[in-house]
Amino acid sequence: MNLSLPWPRDSVLTFALEIGIVAVVLLVTGIQMRRRGRRAFATRLLAGTGIAGTICGVAVLAAFTIAPTLPTPFVPFEAQFVTNPVPDTPENIQAGRILYQQNCVVCHGAQGRGDGPAALTLNPRPVNLQLHVPQHPDGFLFYWIAEGVQGTQMPSWKDKLTETQRWQIVRYLHELAALTGGP
Amino acid sequence: MNFTPIEAHIIQGPLDAFIEFALPLVILGVLWWWAKRAEKKPK
Q1: Nearest beta carbon to residue B1 from set A43, A115, A127
Q2: Is the residue at A2 inside a domain?
Q3: Considering its fold, how many domains does chain A have in total?
Q4: Full residue range of the structural domain in which residue A31 is found
Q5: Is residue A95 in a domain?
């Protein structure tokens, strides 16, 4: 299973920073309230500091473990958690390989490194799939293949490839990233 | 070699913006309300 957060590292770290500020605000206010004798209020503010601090710690931990390291192009919420209905079989991977070679190699390259023959003519350049594929859940990969990526030359493939074919490509992309040993 | 420029990536949608920017304020508000509630409890 490819465990990955749907938010990139930068966003998770921003969230952690903000929660950290919340913890500091609660801590400072809690100390002030204790000095003023409002003990019940202060006790809970300090407990809140612990809660916010824990959330901050978990967010930092997640940011450096399961969050993608690059900002993520938009994917609707309902599409983010879709799983691959195509079984992980050699036949499907082989079908995905053929489809990839027919449709994707020209931009993404044979190894998926974003260095296909057409890559130099594109602005922005195609993404390095070896970098991206291990970092994103299947729902994201499928959505980008189906709908394209706004602001880039990555086209929508939903009218050219069937849903099964698009999922077979997702199967092959994992194989490609694993076989070639990552970035 | 990584050919991916940062400009190739689009900022996320409204849900992501909410989680990144509004959720910490919501958490602050809830914790503050919970703390304030302790003072109002009859002894």
Answers
A1: A115
A2: no
A3: 2
A4: 9-63
A5: yes
Which site among A41, A115, A150, A153 would you substitute to test the B interface, given the most B Cβ atoms closer than 10 Å to its Cβ? A41
Q: Tell me, yes or no, whether A72 lies in a domain.
A: no
pLDDT, one tens digit per residue, over B1-43 is: 233 333 333 344 566 677 777 899 999 999 999 999 988 766 5
The Cα A144–Cα A141 span in angstroms is: 5
CA distance readout (Å), A126 to A10, A90, A93? 21, 27, 22
Q: Using omega within 30 degrees of 0 as the cis cutoff, is the peptide bond preceding A124 cis?
A: yes
CATH of the domain at A170: 1.10.760.10
Residue A91 sits in the same domain as residue A50? no
**Whether residues A50 and A102 fall in one domain:** no
ipTM exceeding 0.95, yes/no? no
Classify residue A69: in a domain, yes or no.
no
Interface of B with A in 1-43 (CB under 8 A): 1-13, 15-16, 19-21, 23-24, 27-28, 31-32, 34-39, 41
Q: Are the CB atoms for B13 and A76 separated by under 8 Å? A: yes
pTM of the model: 0.58
Answer whether A19 sits within 8 Å of B27, measured CB to CB: yes
Any B CB within 8 A of A58 CB: no
